[in-house]
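DATA SHEET
Item: assembly model
Revision: 1
Owner: S.N.
Input lines:
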Amino acid sequence: MIMYGGEIEKAGGPANHMSNGEGVVLKKGPWTAAEDEILYVYVRENGEGNWNAVQKNTGLARCGKSCRLRWANHLRPNLRKGSFTGDEERLIIQLHAQLGNKWARMAAQLPGRTDNEIKNYWNTRLKRLQRQGLPLYPPDIIPNHQLHPHPHHHQQNHHHHQQHQHQQMYFQPQSSQPNTPSSSPLPSPTAINANPSSSFTFHSTNASTAYLLHPLSPHTPTTPQTPSQVSSTPPPPPLSSPLSSPRNNQYPTLPLFTFPSSQINNNNNNTNFTFPRPPPLLQPPSSLLAKRYNNSNTPLNCINRVSTAPFSPVSRDSYTSFLTLPYSSPTAQTATYHNTNNNYSSFSLNPSPSSYPTTTSSPSFLHSQYTPNYSSTSFHNNPVYTMKQEFPSNQIPQIGVFNNVNNFTDNEKQKNTNLHRRSISCNLLEDVLEEAEALAGGDGDRPSKRRQLTASPPNHHNNNNNDNDNFFSVSFEQYDSSENIYSLQDLKPKEEESLQMNTMQDDIAKLLDWGSDSGEISNGQSSVLTDDNLVLDVHQLNSLFPADSTAAETRTNDEQNNNDKINCSWDNLHGVS
DNA sequence: AAATCCCCCAACCGCAGACAT
DNA sequence: CATGTCTGCGGTTGGGGGATT
């Protein structure tokens, strides 16, 4: 096997290397373009997971952890690079106030962002504010630990003595409960939401913030509700079937940050409001996706794994397929909402090429003008690279490149199409399972750490929008801004949904058998836990974060015809790709 | 112009949980 | 049940580069 070590000789001395225990010298330090290409191609072929096998199968002189990190932070599709937007920053602050240094969980709320990015951002911000003597949080955000001090509760990883120390050291101006350096100032997420039916309470010192989070309530009010009303009357449990999907129309999307303060009732300056735990996010039966591979050095191809499962879970083909298949007009898959200015914004429920930021730099091998030679010798000899070996920070694969790399046959495309059809119908079952677990009093509310939030993006690459596809067609075009009501159209009739339920009885039974199982899947995003007690509806986040505006700049005319609106792809949604 | 500071960010490390054997 | 492996998370480090002194 040819070992590719990048620029070992050039880049590093002995300190830049380590052994994998089998005499293979593994490289450390910055990744080169060639290494990226190897990793990218490998993941494309084999899916995520089993990272240690990358080195074994490709000769890439990188440890599994390094490969995983590189993929998650730089190579995976739909990464959103560049500076945080104001909305993102605001959300980060809010999330940090609620979650503390739970970067991965915060990243789950910021489509396309990685935990590392958020962590870096926060640490930088922390440092700056400390230096300037400014408070960490704006006056309208009170950190959760000040509202729900659990001085005796230690976080799960309390061994991290440094955790939150900065905040403890600094952010004390309003705290009546001193935090000792050894105790986490933040309530445990588990403690917050130990009860499946418990609600998450967010406290805000003004109505503005409350309003921002109002849409998080899945119980869309039929009449305008002031934050105080929301606070005083905890929403009742859903009257409809508890077997609900966050993707269905029960929980329409409202923009979180687009409401001008003038429209907000400012009478209540100290608002507490409560919203119930959101419906479970979609995830396949975890046992289907147990990321344990066979003992051979060759990891199971994800597609093969999928094909043997009763349902089609999500795998890497969830993105590769939509990346490689022709993009079709999202006619029935575009959800449009009015904001309060009566402007239209929209996002597409199906991933579209135009949803990819394209003006940020990308690994050169991902660009169409670069035709890599995939022979290992070319990797080794590296004769074709003329670009700087190390990428800049913003590296985003482009759709066109994937098309270049993926020469899927028509049969393969059809296979992917079918897989996604099944994925779509499977997602409802997964929700059913989740809810059933919760109703059964199991610990479905607290999925194991390894159970990752995943669902397949509805792959509308064919133009035959059959019922399965329409299942995810949600249009918010009847939002009445004057009453803050979202009416829904283009929805699948309840009866049809019920029929689907009935026809899936047997499968549900199977699923229930798997309920206690635990596993993990790869979602093509950075790690995302599913036991969020503050999981924002991904639709809401989609409304929050329209695709990188730069994407629109490079769209082709045809694409613009199809997507004359801002698009966010499913793959931008953490855990839903 | 050089030194220093600061910001940004990629990547590493250690640890713990989940799972397989 | 013990042990080993894999993975994910959070904390930390160190280099590059721009701004400032």
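QC remark: Residues 30, 49-52, 64-65, 68, 72, 101-104, 115, 119, 123, 157, 160, 162-163, 291-292, 449-450, 452, 520, 526-527, 529 of chain A lie near DNA strand C (CB under 10 Å from a C1').
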